[in-house]
Amino acid sequence: MTQIENYDILVFGGGKAGKTLAMDQSKAGKKVAVVEAGMIGGSCINVACIPSKTLIRSAEMTHLARQMNEFGVVADNVRNNLVHARDRTARVVAEMVATNQAGFDASGLSLILGRGRFVGPKTIEVQTESGPRTVTGDQVFINLGTSADVPNIPGLAAANPITHVEALQLGDLPARLVVIGGGYIGMELGQAFRRLGAEVVIVERAARLAPREDPDVGEAILKILSEEGVEVALSAFDLQVSGRSGEGVTVRSADGRSFEGSHILVASGRKPNTFGIGLDLAGVDTDERGFIKVDGQLRTSAPGAWAMGEVAGTPMFTHASLDDYRIVKSAMAGGTRNTSDRIIPYCVFIDPEFARIGSNESDLNKEGTPYRVAKLPMDVIPRARTLSHRKGFMKAIIAADSDTILGFSMLGTSAGEVMSVVQMAMLGGLSFTALRDGIFAHPTIAEGLNMLFANVTAPSKAA
Length: 463
Fold this sequence. Notes:
By secondary structure, the protein is of the alpha/beta class. The chain has helices at residues 16-27, 43-47, 49-65, 82-107, 164-167, 184-195, 215-227, 279-282, 318-332, 361-367, 382-387, 415-427, 432-437, 448-453; strands at 4-12, 32-36, 110-113, 115-120, 123-128, 131-142, 146-148, 176-180, 199-203, 231-233, 240-244, 248-252, 258-261, 263-266, 270-272, 305-307, 346-348, 354-358, 371-377, 393-399, 405-411.
């Protein structure tokens, strides 16, 4: 009979929230174990955020090299080497894995590598290389994340499509890449592989790219991608797939359009890693999609068990998972932090970047909330001109009857950094006039905020 190992804190899955909580509690003197299938540091640094942005950077450098003549530099016969780009990505990942492992070691936690599943409340059986281990915890935290979902499209599974994981490990450049899904991952990787030299077609069922954003955002992104040679097929419904990825594939839509490719990449959604892990035996309830049901402090239906990150339905961003850790830590200490009291920013790493914090026009129109809007093309910002990064725009949403900033969107160079400036103003409860009248260094992209907020109109008398 396997001996049961008891811990104060048992973390199932080593994503951002889980690993941060585990190290924190171990340093505080608790006996802590982390059960992880094998990705030390979580999916973000192994197969998602970090490797994808590293590859995107390689693609960006290739793209810039082809434009060197504009800057007075002669760069003839520019070529790319996907193997070198892949190896650079692997090195960055390896360095971050090592950093995370060092953090685990320094904290004193026990890292148990292997596939785990619940066999009872607060009890996990782990299949390790040296045999099965059974571990329990006074408190259990589930942080298993999500994985790419292959939709039920006729012929798709048989085509053996690649996901973002395999795309980041390719050594040979696809001649023509068909991307199923025009979301964040599809747009990022689609643009990157086009810049690396592949022909790319993005097939999206929605009527525009970035359908959760305002129409002007989707239209601007479409223009940018199209100008770089990315083919985008919108309103592509009821797809059928034939062939095999790597050998030749054909994707057909219900309206008769046909898209040929050498490879097919699925980037159409994510599914929680909750199936077949015994959540029913643990007393943990899930919704119809498999996401764990939690309250505002991320408690599950099982006493003494929390869920954090994407598996709990948290927006699929590493920084959101980190804030889940803060909420859970607060709850453990009797605090009141709640998932309802936060506004989560995000950034899409196409080039130029797209970033948003707070509400956009579409959100407020659905709510029937009146607002004022100010918009500024990137082309008028001096720093954008010096950089030759003139595409995109900034847009601010201001309350109709006060100076409160309700939201900010930006498609442009350094969008993520500029968005953070606006986010700090929103967190501090500052009026938009603080950004309108604040002194920003010149020439910077951030000084565009002076110009943007100077365009805010006076409150409506009707408001």
